[in-house]
Amino acid sequence: MLDTHSSQNDSHRAGNSVHVFKSCWRSAQVLRSVRARRKSPPSLGSCFCFLLSGILGIPKKVIWIVRIAGGLALWWTNEVKLSVLLHDKNLIDTVISINGEDEWFGTFIYAPPYEKEKQEFWERLGTLRNDVNAKWCIMGDTNIVASPNEKYSGSPFDHNNAKWFHEFLERYYLREIQSKGGSYTWSNQRSEEDEICEKLDRVLSSLE
Question: Looking at the domain assignment, is residue 1 inside a domain?
Fold first, then answer.
């Protein structure tokens, strides 16, 4: 259940949300979170990270968590002050300041695709922020279809997954920053009659 707050506090959160939204969008321009899917040994994954840094012209400030089945990589540029607090195969948790502005938490994720691991991952993610008033931005592949209009074809929409995902957002005072472009972020790349499309990638921001 959500804690009850006064309308004054809610108004304060709503008023300050614009600042966090702008910070998140700005971070999207200077931070690049890349999920490296490959079948090569980790040492080759490391080479891939530095090679891509050169291609994109990004200073070699990079952390990667690469395994045989894939992993996460995160680059950031000189105007970003970033400290890594925690990382594993599914997330990189950081504290960020851009151009000397106030610090906020940025968590870059590749959530598990397996049903039995999904809710456990989001519960563990919530333990990273004991203070629900902290400025927090979550970016990446949530592996959750949050509403029926985010899915085209394939298995039926999972109402249970969507329910506890929205409960997570409410519990930690997060809202989704609306994206532009196509309605879906993932496709199985099959022919039209067998095609499945879903929206899985999101940016979530705190209201504070």
Answer: no
Tokens read off for 103? 């610090």
- Is the predicted pLDDT of residue 175 greater than 80, yes or no? yes
How does DSSP assign 108-131, residue by residue? EEE---SHHHHHHHHHHHHTT-S-
Say if 123 falls within a structural domain: yes
CATH of the domain at 58: 3.60.10.10
Residues 6+ apart with CB under 8 A from 193: none
What range does the domain containing 119 cover? 7-206
Of 35-39, 49-53, 65-69, give the lowest mean pLDDT range: 35-39
| 107 assigned to some structural domain | yes
Under the banding of pLDDT at 50, 70 and 90, the label for residue 51 is low
pLDDT at 133: 81
Domain count, the chain: 1
